[in-house]
Structure formats: structure tokens, C-alpha cells
Amino acid sequence: xxxxxxxxxxxxxxxxxxxxxxxxxxxxxxxxxxxxxxxxxxxxxxxxxxxxxxxxxxxxxxxxxxxxxxxxxxxxxxxxxxxxxxxxxxxxxxxxxxxxxxxxxxxxxxxxxxxxxxxxxxxxxxxxxxxxxxxxxxxxxxxxxxxxxxxxxxxxxxxxxxxxxxxxxxxxxxxxxxxxxxxxxxxxxxxxxxxxxxxxxxxxxxxxxxxxxxxxxxxxxxxxxxxxxxxxxxxxxxxxxxxxxxxxxxxxxxxxxxxxxxxxxxxxxxxxxxxxxxxxxxxxxxxxxxxxxxxxxxxxxxxxxxxxxxxxxxxxxxxxxxxxxxxxxxxxxxxxxxxxxxxxxxxxxxxxxxxxxxxxxxxxxxxxxxxxxxxxxxxxxxxxxxxxxxxxxxxxxxxxxxxxxxxxxxxxxxxxxxxxxxxxxxxxxxxxxxxxxxxxxxxxxxxxxxxxxxxxxxxxxxxxxxxxxxxxxxxxxxxxxxxxxxxxxxxxxxxxxxxxxxxxxxxxxxxxxxxxxxxxxxxxxxxxxxxxxxxxxxxxxxxxxxxxxxxxxxxxxxxxxxxxxxxxxxxxxxxxxxxxxxxxxxxxxxxxxxxxxxxxxxxxxxxxxxxxxxxxxxxxxxxxxxxxxxxxxxxxxxxxxxxxxxxxxxxxxxxxxxxxxxxxxxxxxxxxxxxxxxx
Length: 679
Description:
There is one protein chain. By secondary structure, this protein is an alpha+beta fold. The protein has three domains: about 180 residues, 2-Layer Sandwich (Beta-Lactamase); about 120 residues, Beta-Lactamase, CATH 3.30.450; about 325 residues, Helix Hairpins. It is about 70% helix and about 10% strand. It is built from 14 helices and eleven strands. The longest helix is centred in the C-terminal third of the chain and has 99 residues. It is rod-shaped. It is found in: Cell membrane. Keywords: Cell membrane, Chemotaxis, Coiled coil, Membrane, Methylation, Transducer, Transmembrane, Transmembrane helix.
């Protein structure tokens, strides 16, 4: 028989299922928590940085706005208008040139004193005249009208124009020039300009604490870095992300990019009027650093929890499977034929009830085998007695055949030698007496054989009754196992109900999530709870499916037990068929013995008649001699009848031997089992 492959134990299955569920749950929680932490951290940084970028823009706008307002005010001041009119037309308006110049000088000095960041202020005329405070050495032939600040103001006469920031080579400081056209009757008469030192502004922006290792930047309209941690004064428009920012039509935005292999994010805002970009730059590694710490803590906590869970599962599963292992050991002993073993499981659950029913089954089988064993002993004794009687009958038949042969020889001698008639008659009388005694004995033996045969039939009937009882026990056992299968099916129905409830719970959680989404900010907390409920419902469905698979394996084992009971029942049916055949053999033996008894009775009656007439035989010896040949012929016929009787006795002997063989086979089958001996 092919050895069945050993499968996983229930303990291993329980440990594997619960461990897998926990690891999957931990992985899902870890992934969701990591994603949410990183996403929320990035969103928070972006939100804060958007505010910071806006504040930086407001600060720069406020800083530049004071100069813009002052230039507009100065461009309309009476002193500057009179001075420019004098320079353009020579009209002094009742004042001397010195007074006009002195008025502008005082205004510019006051401006320099008022605004610390103003390094110089000047006024230029279209006729290339330039007045600057403080005084500066200018190259010979200097033409202010060719400068960018003059051209920009002349082109946009109503606005204050800002130059691109540049680094002063002498002071290594960031400088920007603001210029405004001076108009008289909408005619350009001059341009007022001021050079502004951006050092304090850039220092204030550079020193801002953004958190997460972020850096503040200020980029000019043409891409020049006004404030930058490493590239101040450089034109950065060649970088893709800077070009994208400068070309964007959005006033503010977020740009993710990779620089020198490092992922970064920049949140920017635009300063109105200048087109400058204020921004905050962060490394993604710094942003998600806090999230990584949380991930490590969550991973360590999960591993510790998994270790504790494995220990708890091992303890619980060991306690649950201990009764099953004990019952398995008992079943293994019984499978070898040892019916003296009993299960000692005392549990009150399904395992305990199964052990109790198993013990009842073993008790029933043991009782049945004991009954069969007792019946077998009686059958064997009867078979041995029948065999002995058959042998005795066979011997008697041979003696009778020998006697008849002797009669035939005597008849022949009587016919050939009448002188020996007297002697032959006396010998015949003795032979008749002997035959009479032998026939009487044969009749008694035939009666005894009939009684033995009847006893054998009674024993066969008892044995058949024992087999009927065994059949009833097997039917009861089959009903118990089928009932166990029904209980398993009921459990399957309960698990199906749990699956339906879990699906409905999942649907309710989904609806709750939708309602929470509609509620907006107020429903976020409820949405998280609904999501967790949905996950628990999914886990319940997975656990229910695992239990279903286990129940299916139990049901398959129950079905296998039913098949084994069917095979056992078929074996008992085959043995019952053998008993029926044995019963038919005994019936045939009884018919043969009745025939033998009738023949022996007839023969006994004939011998009694011969014994009664033997005296007449002596008187009719001569007639007997004449009829000797007829007597010899009759003896031959009697000899033939005796041969037939001998064959019938041989058939009885063969049947007895067959019954003995069958009883030995039954004994071998019973000896396979070890049962407790009844007292």
C-alpha cells in the first residue's frame, strides 16, 4: 500500500494563517502610515513655505515700494521740475542757477539720509546733463541717456522701472537701480534714478529659518540669483527648473526637480511690478526624515508585536491540538488491530465528543468480534465432530462392502460345492449375525451424523445472527459519521453568514467614507474610522475563507471515513455470503444423510428378515445352492449400492473438511484484532 504523504499540522496551519494575516496587516498599516506621514509632511512644508514665500514677497515689495513711492513723489516735486526746465530751456523762473542747484542738492541729501539703503540718487536730462549725490567721478564724455535705466524710464514714462540686480565690483554688494521719468506737459524733461543697496534685504531673507533644512531664494526677472545659498549673483536661467519657473504664467507654484542626484522641491511666489521670484527650496530627504523615523519606530513595534503574537499562537494552538494528538495516537493503535486501547480525552467540545463516540465504536466492534469468536469455536467443534463421524461411517461402509463381497464369494462356493452347504450355511448364519450387528451400528452412526449436521446448522444460524448484529453496529457507526458531516456543513453555513456580514460591513464602511468625504474637513476623522472598519471587514473575510478551507479538509476526512465504513460493510457482506454457502452445504449434507438413513433402514429390515429366516435357510440349502448364482448377482448389486453409499460418505467428509477450512480462515481474520478477553 502506498504511504500517504504527511501534510501540515493544524497547529502549523493556525500559526501560518494568523502570522500571515498579521504581517499583511502590518505591511498595509506601515505602507499607509508611511505614505500619509510623507504626504502630510510634504503638504505641511509646502503650505508653510507658500506662506513664507508670500511673506518674503511682501517684504521685498514693501522694501521696494518705499523707493517707488519716493521716486514718484520726487519726480513731481517743484524743485526738480524747475531744475530740469532750467537745464532744458535755460528758464530760471526768477531764481538763480545756484538756488536751483542748491534746492536739488538739499532734497537729494535728505533722501540719502532718510533711506539708508540708497547709495546714490541722480537726475539726468535728455541733453546728457547729470546731477548725482553724493558726487562721483564719471568718465569723460559719460552719456546717461545711453544707460539702461534712462532708456527704461523714457520708454515707460508713467511707471517706476527697476533694473536687473547686479553685484557692485567695488563693494561686492547687490545693487538695483530704480528710475522714473520726469514729465512736464507729458513731455520728457528728465529721469530721476536711485541706486539701492540690497544687502540688508538679502541678509534678512537669507537668515530666515525655514525648517527642514530649507533655504530662501530670490531670483531676478532675468534669472539672476539675488539671494541664494551658493550661487548669489549668477544667472540661473540655464537650469530647467528655473526656466520653467520664469516662463510660467502662474504667479506662484511648486516645482519638483533633481539637482546633482538629489531630489528637491521649490515653492515660489512672484513680486508684482518687478517680476522677481521669492522661493523656498527643500531637500526631499530632509522633508521625509521625520517620516523615516516614524517608519523605523513602527517597524520595530510591529516586529515585537509579531514575536509576542507568535508565542501566544504557539501556546494556544498547542493547547487546542493536544487532545487531537492524543486521539490520533489512539486511532493509530486501533488501526493496527489493537482494540484494547481507549481515548483518554476529557474535553467537552467537538474533540471530546468525537473521542467519546470513537470509544463507543471500539466497544461495539470488540463486542461483535467476541461474539463471532465464540460462534467460530462452536462451528469448529461441530466441523471436527462431523469429520470424525464421516470417517467412522466411511470405515463402516468399507466393512459392509467387504462383507457383501464375502457373501458373493460364499454364494459362488455354495453353487460349486453343495457338500460344503452345511458348513457354508453355518458360516452364512454367522455372517448374517455379523451383518445384523454392523447394520444396527451403521444406523446408530447415521443418526448421530444427522444430529451433528443439525447442530452445525444451528451454529451457522447463530453465526449469521452475530453477523447481523455487526451489520447493525456498522450502520450505526456510519450514521454517526454522517451526522458529524452534517455538523461540519452547519459550521460552513455559519461561516457563510459571517462572510455576508463582513461584506455588508465593508459596504457600510464605504458609504461612511463617501459621506465623510462630502462633509469635508469635519468628516476627515470619521473617514479614517470608516477606512479602518473596512480594512477589518476585509481581514474578517480573509480569516473566514481560511477557516472555510480548514472545515473543508475536515469534511473530506469525514467523507473518507464514510468510504472506509462502506469497505468494512462490504467485507462483512462477503463473509455473510460465505456463511450462507456453508449453510447450504449443511442442508445438502442433511439430505444425503436422510437418504443414507433410509437405505440403512431398508438394509436393516432386510437383514432382520434374513436373521429370522436363517433356520429355514438350513432346510432349503439345496434350493439355495441352485439359486446361488442369483444370490451372487444380488450381492453384486448390493456391492454397487454400497459403493454409492461410500461415495456419499466421502462427500460428507469433504464438506466437513471445507467447513473446517472456512472456520480457520475466519479465525485468521479474527486474530488480526486484539480485544479484551471477557471474564
